Amino acid sequence: MKYINAAEILPEKLLKELQTYIEGEILYVPKTSSKKQWGTTTGSRLFYSERNEEIQKYYKEGYSINELANRYNLAYSTIKKIIYG
């Protein structure tokens, strides 16, 4: 994170207003854009969502939890969470 002197970039009126709250300290100003959700950039979220829907479909078609765990190389408890969660 780069340090920027507020006096160099802020209007004088705004700088004086800020100085009534904090003076001579470092202040972090967060970005206005909201943080992206996990996996939205890489496509992981979509991949796992589609996989989980497929697992639920196969379970409804009669596949057992053990069969699905073996097919997808997942733990029995993970398959249960996907089906019942």
What does this structure look like?
This protein has 85 residues and is mostly helical. It is 56% helix and 0% strand. Helix 4 (65-72) crosses helix 5. The model has no long low-confidence stretch (mean pLDDT 92).
Order of helices and strands: HHHHH
Q: Report low-confidence residues grouped into runs of 5 or more.
A: none
Query: For the terminal residues, how far apart are their CA atoms?
Result: 40 Å
Q: How many individual β-strands?
A: 0
Overall average residue pLDDT: 92
Q: What is the count of helical runs?
A: 5
| Percentage of residues in helical conformation | 55-70%
Strand content: under 5%
Alpha carbon gyration radius: 25 Å
Identify the overall geometry. Answer: rod-shaped
SS content category: mainly alpha
The major sheet is characterized as: none
